[in-house]
Write a structure and sequence with these properties.
two-stranded antiparallel sheet, about 160 residues, mainly alpha, 4 helices
Length: about 160
C-alpha cells in the first residue's frame, strides 16, 4: 500500500512537469537560428547546443516563422486513487478486527447511531481479547511463575 501511495505521488510529480519543445525547420543556407526572445542569433554553449528557454507561468513566447511548439504529455495521477486506498484500508481494518472509521478517522459515511454501534462492538471485542488472551495467556502464567520463585526464594511463606 505504501509502494502504491509512493508511485501515485511520483506520477503526480511527473504530471506536474510542464515542458515544451520548439521545433524549427532546417536552416536554409548559412542562416543562423534566431533566439525567439531577443531575435538575435543563438550563442551556442561549449557542447554545441543552444541554451534552453525557461518556461514561467503565464509567459507568452513569440516564435520565429516556421517554428512550432510541442508540449510533453506526462501521465496523470489516475482518478481511482481515493477508491483504491479506501478499499485497501478497509481490507486492513477487517484483517485486524478494527473498524475502518477508528483505524483511519474517516467519519464521512457514518452517522452518530451507527458509530455508537461500531464503538460498542469494538469495545466488547477488546474486552474479550483482554480477558481471553492477555489475562489467561500472559498475566496468569507470569503470576504463577512469580509465586513459585517467591516461595522457592523464601520471600513468601504460604500457610498449609
Amino acid at each position: 500500500l505504501d509502494n502504491y501511495d509512493d508511485a501515485v505521488l511520483f506520477r503526480q510529480e511527473v504530471a506536474n512537469l510542464f515542458a515544451g519543445f520548439i521545433s524549427r525547420p532546417p536552416p536554409e543556407g548559412r542562416q543562423l537560428a534566431l533566439d525567439p526572445v531577443t531575435g538575435q542569433p543563438f550563442n551556442e554553449d561549449r557542447d554545441g547546443f543552444t541554451p534552453m528557454v525557461a518556461l514561467e507561468p503565464g509567459t507568452m513566447q513569440e516564435l520565429g516563422p516556421g517554428e512550432e511548439v510541442e508540449f510533453s504529455k506526462p501521465p496523470d495521477a489516475g482518478n481511482n486513487y481515493p477508491d483504491f486506498m479506501r478499499q485497501q484500508l478497509m481490507a486492513a481494518a477487517a484483517g485486524t478486527g478494527t473498524p475502518y472509521e477508528i483505524l483511519t478517522g474517516d467519519m464521512r459515511e457514518v452517522n452518530d447511531r451507527a458509530l455508537r454501534v461500531v464503538l460498542n462492538e469494538f469495545r466488547r471485542r477488546l474486552e474479550q481479547l483482554q480477558f481471553g488472551v492477555y489475562v489467561h495467556q500472559l498475566c496468569r502464567p507470569v503470576r504463577a511463575a512469580w509465586m513459585d520463585m517467591a516461595v522457592l526464594a523464601g520471600r513468601l511463606k504460604l500457610d498449609n
